[in-house]
Every structure is written in structure tokens, then in C-alpha cells.
Task: inverse folding
């Protein structure tokens, strides 16, 4: 019993150690002997452009549903005029960044995990290494940076579409002009709502890229490990997102209130 | 061919400096799995050594140690006069540029065309920028494996034999002094196997490379081997020419030649 516990703890410590080493490798290789611009842009395209559809639909529907859910209640209190502000604050502060990050964890972290995992299993990563090319720089740095940059952009787009969804939702029952709706939405927002929530999306993006690469790069031999890498990439990336969110809210409260 | 090797050997009797890979009492375990127990082998310049052995005996592990992909637990390993474990990252990089490795699966980069696969080491290792020169090198390498027409294809569009050839071309493009082949003919039909084996010999003669070739394809061994080393249970149990080993009374060795 005790030995099972210590061996589990040891295993986790080992993983933590590996991740620290991997972070170090990532950092050291960012600008080593030039930067892999071609691969970085290709990854931005894959991570960003290919997720636009999914993220756009999700964003729009979140705003739409949120409005339909809250409007009747607010109406009972005669507070319909708060709908735009309520929608924009909850979307931009919390729901938009977290839901989009979780969606991206499902789509992007898994595909990076599977891609690098299969490259590992079919010896492509070893082949890069023996040909003196730098697989960390070419594969890992580009993917992590692409995620770090693209997830915030996707989130901003989703937030905007969520507000649009909210406006459409309001207009099912009432008639509110777009100008009025958006003016009220933005009026409700403060600097302390927008900046921290944008900043945390960079961390979400980094976590997605990092976990995907780590799981893929360290997958073991044998084809079944590819599926395992993809799956555990999603699980741990999602967990990281929730943790980062919890930490971010503490930091924001410390700074602003 | 044999004559020149013999001549070279007599000329360099004093120092054993025609040894390009020197492996001495190498050991390697993965957890409780003791894979390499005591491996010793010398590869001479211009020589093709075939390593025979059943699956899972540690043949791939041995050459992965040579390429610095795995770190041996014990023993000495010198490649081109340099002790591998003492090399800095930069020195290892430099050494690897003189070392070619053909992986069992070919290990072509799936997301790149054949052209990009071949120019990858040129831009990364030789820092080559001149497009025209790169194109020429890529075409030359493809021509030497007889696959010029595949230049714009993706690896998924190629057959097993073609992948091996492209893998070989990508290995050759840096003009390595040593090539390590991991089962170059496994999974191919006999005719393609034969072609690949003959290609290995041609390349050895054309570029004067030294090679370690892992295989259990005896037809291939017969064509390419100057010397054969038989691995069993983490050790080399015999070395000799094809004909010498074919006559061996030892059943373990003899089994390969049946
Ligand atoms: N990277 C590794 N991690 C753990 N075990 C390994 C690794 N590489 C090889 N092995 C184990 O070493 C043994 C020999 O493998 P290998 O050298 O691939 O055999 P072969 O002689 O068929 O090439 C096998 O039992 C294999 O499971
Ligand atoms: Mg093998």
C-alpha cells in the first residue's frame, strides 16, 4: 500500500520533472540559429484558420442561448435593459475564454498530440534528430507559439460573435436596434474586465500547445500510444485551463479590487 | 574491392585509424529489461557489416546508441575517432552530419513532399540557401535511387519500396561517411529487396561509405556483407564472412543460413 503510494508519487514527480525539462528545451530553442518561420505560419494556419468555423458557431450560440435563458428572469424584475450588459460581462470575462479554450483543447491539443505521437512512433522525430535538424525547434516551438497566438485571436472573434448572438436572441421577442444593444454591451465593460481576460487566453493557448506537444513528443513505442497521447492531451489541457482560470481570477482580484 | 581493403589494412597497421566505429563492452538496459549485455564490434573504413539476429535481440538499440539516440549504460563507443558520450551538443550535431541512418519504416516526414523531405537536411544542417543548387542536390540524390519521378509526391502516395528508396536518398543527400541501415529490405518483395541490396553496394562503392546493415534477409546479407556479425541474447556470438558462417556447426548461426 505504502509502496504503491510512493511509486505513484514518484511517477508524478518524474512527469513534473520531464515537463520542466521540456519547458526548458522549448525556451532554449525559440530563437536558436534562426526561427522556423515557414512552419510557424503553417501551424498558425492549421491551428487558427481551421478552427474558425467551430469557434464561430460556438461563440454565436453561447451568446444566443445565454440571452434567451436570462431575458425572461430579468424581464420579471423589469430589468430587460440590463440584458446586453449582463451578456457582455459574462461572455467576455469568463464564458468566452474558458469555453473556447476547452473547445480548442479538444480540437487542437488532441490533433497535435496525435500528430507528434505518430511522428514519434514512426521514428520521424528520431530521423530529424539524427539528421542534425532540431526537432524541438521545428516541431515544438512552432506549435506552442502558434497556439499561444491563435487561441486569443479565436477567443476575441468568438466573443464578438457571442455578442451578435445575444443581439439576435433579444430580437426574437423584443425589438432592440443593434446600435443600442452594442452601445449598452460595451458601456457595461470596464478595463478590468477586458484586459485580464485577454491576458489569460494567451496562457490557455500556451497550455494547449504545450500539453499537446509534450504528450505527443513523449508518447511511448507502439501504435496504440498515439491514441493515448491524443486522449491524455485533451484531458490534461482541459484541466490546465480550469486551473489557470482559477489562478487568473485570484490575480485579477488582487490587482483590481 | 577486397584487395583494396586488404591493402589499406596493411598500410595502416600501426594505428587502427581505419576503424570508423569502435564498440567495446557496450551495455544497455531499459528498467529490468537487460537488452545489450556485452557488445563489441569494429567497423572499418569502406566495410559493410551485416548484423543478423532474431527480433527483439537489441540490433536497433545498438545502432541507436551509435547514432547517439540512446545513451548506453556502460562501455566505450567511438565514432570517427570521437567518444560519443563525451561530445557536447554541437560536437554531436557535427558528428551526426557525417552519419546517415535509414530507419526501418523509412521515417519520411508525412507532412512534406519528397522534395521537401530531401531539402530538409540541406537547409537545416548545411544551411544551404541557393534554390538551384538545392534542386540539383535533391535531383541527384533521387536519381541515385532511381526515383526522379516521385519528387512532388507525398510519402502516403508511395509504395513501401519507394519509401525505403526515398529514405535512402534523404540519408545520402548529406554524403555521410557512415550509414546505419535498420532492416532495409524487411517487408519488401524479393525483387525490390534485391534492388535495394544492390543499391546499397553501389552506394558504398560510389561514395566510399562504411555501413552497418541490420537484416534477417539472407539474400540481402549475401549481396551486401563484407562481414557478418550474429547477435543473440545481447551479445555477438560470431563474426565472419558469409561463407565462413554458412559452414558453422553452431545451430544458432546455422539456422539463419537454411
Ligand atoms: N526506447 C526503448 N524503450 C524501452 N525499451 C526498448 C526501447 N527500445 C528497445 N527496447 C526494447 O529492447 C529490446 C530490443 O529491441 P530492438 O533493438 O528494437 O530489437 P531488434 O533486434 O529487433 O531491432 C526489445 O525488448 C524492446 O522492447
Ligand atoms: Mg529492430
Result:
Amino acid at each position: 500500500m505504502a509502496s504503491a503510494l510512493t511509486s505513484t508519487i514518484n511517477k508524478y514527480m518524474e512527469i513534473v520533472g520531464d515537463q520542466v525539462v521540456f519547458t526548458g528545451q522549448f525556451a532554449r530553442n525559440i530563437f536558436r540559429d534562426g526561427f522556423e518561420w515557414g512552419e510557424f505560419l503553417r501551424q498558425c494556419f492549421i491551428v487558427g484558420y481551421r478552427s474558425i468555423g467551430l469557434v464561430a458557431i460556438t461563440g454565436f450560440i453561447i451568446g444566443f442561448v445565454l440571452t434567451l435563458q436570462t431575458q425572461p428572469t430579468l424581464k420579471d424584475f423589469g430589468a430587460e435593459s440590463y440584458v446586453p450588459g449582463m451578456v457582455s460581462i459574462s461572455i467576455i470575462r469568463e464564458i468566452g475564454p474558458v469555453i473556447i479554450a476547452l473547445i480548442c483543447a479538444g480540437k487542437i491539443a488532441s490533433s497535435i498530440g496525435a500528430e507528434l505521437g505518430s511522428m514519434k512512433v514512426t521514428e520521424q522525430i528520431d530521423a530529424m534528430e539524427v539528421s542534425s535538424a532540431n526537432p524541438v525547434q521545428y516541431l515544438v516551438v512552432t506549435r506552442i507559439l502558434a497556439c499561444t497566438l491563435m487561441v486569443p485571436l479565436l477567443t476575441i472573434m468568438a466573443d464578438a460573435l457571442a455578442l451578435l448572438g445575444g443581439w439576435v436572441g433579444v430580437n426574437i421577442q423584443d425589438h432592440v436596434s443593434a446600435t443600442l444593444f452594442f452601445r449598452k454591451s460595451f458601456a457595461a465593460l470596464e478595463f478590468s474586465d477586458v484586459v485580464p481576460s485577454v491576458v489569460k487566453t494567451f496562457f490557455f493557448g500556451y497550455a494547449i500547445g504545450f500539453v499537446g506537444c509534450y504528450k505527443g513528443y513523449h508518447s511511448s513505442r507502439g501504435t496504440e500510444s498515439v491514441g493515448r497521447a491524443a486522449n491524455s492531451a485533451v484531458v490534461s489541457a482541459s484541466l490546465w485551463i480550469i486551473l489557470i482560470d482559477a489562478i487568473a481570477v485570484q490575480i485579477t482580484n488582487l490587482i483590481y479590487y | 574491392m577486397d584487395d583494396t581493403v586488404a591493402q589499406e589494412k596493411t598500410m595502416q597497421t600501426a594505428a587502427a585509424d581505419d576503424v570508423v566505429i569502435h564498440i567495446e563492452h557496450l551495455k544497455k538496459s531499459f528498467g529490468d529489461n537487460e537488452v545489450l549485455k556485452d557488445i563489441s564490434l569494429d567497423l572499418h573504413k569502406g566495410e559493410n557489416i551485416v548484423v543478423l539476429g532474431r527480433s527483439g535481440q537489441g540490433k536497433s538499440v545498438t545502432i541507436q546508441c551509435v547514432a547517439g539516440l540512446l545513451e548506453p549504460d556502460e562501455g566505450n563507443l567511438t565514432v570517427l575517432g570521437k567518444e560519443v558520450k563525451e561530445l557536447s551538443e554541437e560536437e554531436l550535431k557535427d558528428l551526426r552530419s557525417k552519419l546517415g541512418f535509414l530507419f526501418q519504416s523509412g521515417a519520411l516526414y508525412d507532412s512534406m513532399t519528397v522534395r521537401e523531405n530531401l531539402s530538409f537536411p540541406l537547409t537545416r544542417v548545411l544551411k544551404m540557401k541557393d534554390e538551384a543548387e538545392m534542386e540539383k542536390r535533391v535531383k541527384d540524390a533521387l536519381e541515385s535511387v532511381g526515383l526522379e519521378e516521385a519528387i512532388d509526391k507525398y510519402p502516403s502516395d508511395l509504395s513501401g519500396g519507394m519509401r525505403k528508396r526515398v529514405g535512402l536518398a534523404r540519408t545520402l543527400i548529406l554524403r555521410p561517411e557512415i550509414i546505419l541501415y535498420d532492416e532495409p529490405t524487411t517487408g519488401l518483395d524479393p525483387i525490390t529487396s534485391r534492388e535495394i541490396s544492390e543499391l546499397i553496394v553501389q552506394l558504398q562503392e560510389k561514395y566510399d561509405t562504411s555501413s552497418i546493415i541490420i537484416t534477417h534477409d539472407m539474400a540481402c546479407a549475401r549481396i551486401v556483407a563484407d562481414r557478418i556479425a550474429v547477435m543473440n541474447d545481447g551479445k555477438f556470438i560470431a563474426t565472419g564472412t558469409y561463407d565462413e558462417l554458412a559452414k558453422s556447426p553452431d545451430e544458432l548461426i546455422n539456422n539463419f543460413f537454411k
About this structure: Chain A has one domain: 38-256. Residues B 30, 33, 35, 53, 55-61 surround adenosine-5'-diphosphate (ligand 1) (CB under 6 Å). Residues 237 and 243 of chain A are 10 Å apart (CA to CA). The interface with chain B takes residues 118-119, 122-124, 126-134, 138 of chain A (CB under 8 Å).
